Amino acid sequence: MITFKKREIIYRPYEPIVKLIVDMIMIICVAYLLVIAFFDSTQVAGHSMNDTLKDGDTVLIDKVCYEFREPERYDLIVFEPKVANVSKFYVKRIIGLPGETVQIKEGKVYIDGKKLESDLIGTDIYNAGLAAEAIRLGSNQYFVLGDNRNNSDDSRFSNVGLVNGKDIIGRAWMVTMPLADFGFPRAKMPQSEEQTTSPTETTEAETATFVK
Asked: 62: part of which helix (H) or strand (E)?
């Protein structure tokens, strides 16, 4: 005759805690791998993107979004300029798209001869730079400006110029540090005129330190 011995169930009060810890570690590991695969980070140095991005902000760069869509007007991009100043990578906002004509006159941006009424930044531009004359963008070129329009080294100047699509690293996606600025960057009007330059002064380069 076959007999079965009843299995004794031993209650271990610490098991739920151990399971929770293991689950949290796995989630953190998966999140870390996703960040490594799809994102990099950059630290902003300078004032050319005030007050959307501030000096010292650490920003996550979405490296894959432009694999699925083309860069759009007003996207914040991280790119490698023609001539690096203090840093190898810059952060700017796309204003002009491939095939368009861009000009700055009377302090405002004009696209294909029409004033850009939807411009996120309403500040008058003192120095039109190269864009004082109409600039025709090529099939894979972008015209970029800093949000602090009068204190930004951008497509108005020859050391940056038009940005080629191949030089775009990705989209500036989220501010992670400092915690007070945590979140998705949104365009804001520069609050202080202390960081702006007069039309005859040289603009300060906005720079970004690339962090692997």
From this structure: strand 58-62
